[in-house]
Amino acid sequence: MLSSMVVGTWTAFETLAGDLWEAAVNAHPRGLAKLVGGEHRGQKGKEDLGRMVPLERLEKHNYDVSRVMGTLERSLKKVRFAALEEIRGAYKVAFGAEVPTVCRILEDPAPHNLSTVRNLIVHKAQVCDQEYRDKSGGSTVLPQLALGAKLELDGAFVKQLTEPVAQCCVRLLQTIDAWLDNSLAVPEQGELEQGLGI
Q1: Which among 91, 67, 75 has a CA at the least distance from the CA of 14?
Q2: DSSP tally for the chain: helices H, then strands E
Q3: Which long-range contacts (CB under 8 A, 24 or more apart) does 142-150 make?
Q4: d(CA 73, CA 59)
Q5: Residue 69 and residue 74: Cα distance in Å, rounded?
Q6: Whose CA is closest to 160, among 96, 101, 107, 117?
């Protein structure tokens, strides 16, 4: 039951991160869809982020992609959300220049700790390997284990892993929501000039 809570919390975080990214880019494509906020390991470099979109994708959206850029970028695998480094990279290339606070939220150690334990549960049946030792080194939350030792879970430890990630998700949602409210309320310079007939 405890291992399911760890795995389920990671799945919820991963899903929220991907869906929130997609919705934010859809809502504010002008600043975010360029994916030039900064390169990051786990994402393609800027030179690979071309704008070639298969015709059937354009047809699907009636040739109007103004509100589905996040959906397109995600479906074309321009960004991925299957691992923590990919999630951080996706947010960095979209939000790095526009809202660096978002990237700092994802640098919190809580998602790293949860991801490390989740991976040990799913891929190694909770038995410590060198990857776990490397990723847990220096952590004040993750137990330091000998190679081959089994990670024992208890309620207090699972709470210590999952609660900070839930808080991280809330901060991420609130920060992006506040930024979108503010940025969408203020017209872009070109839109303002057009509205004024300049």
Answers
A1: 91
A2: 10, 0
A3: 142/113, 142/116, 142/117, 150/126
A4: 16
A5: 8
A6: 117
Helix axes 109-124, 2-27, angle to 10 degrees: 130
Q: How far apart are CA 127 and CA 124, in angstroms?
A: 5
How far apart CA 79 and CA 44 sit, in angstroms, is 8
> Nearest Cα to 115, choosing from 154, 144, 141?
141
Residue with tokens 């990630």: 165
DSSP-assigned letter for residue 149: P
The pLDDT of residue 75: 86
**What would the pLDDT profile of 58-86 be if each residue is shown by its tens digit?**
677 665 676 788 888 898 888 999 999 99
What confidence score (pLDDT) does residue 46 get?
44
**Residues 112, 141: contact at Cβ < 8 Å?**
no
Q: What are phi and psi of 4, to 5 degrees?
A: -65, -35
Q: DSSP letter string over 52-91?
A: ---HHHHHHTTT--TT-HHHHHHHTTSS--SSHHHHHHHH
- Between vectors from CA 154 to CA 152 and to CA 156, what angle results, nearest 5°? 135
153, burial (CB in 10 Å: exposed 0-12, middle 13-18, buried 19+):
middle
How many CB atoms within 10 Å of residue 133?
A: 15
Q: What's the pLDDT score for residue 164? A: 98
Segments of the chain scoring below 50 in pLDDT: 39-49, 192-198
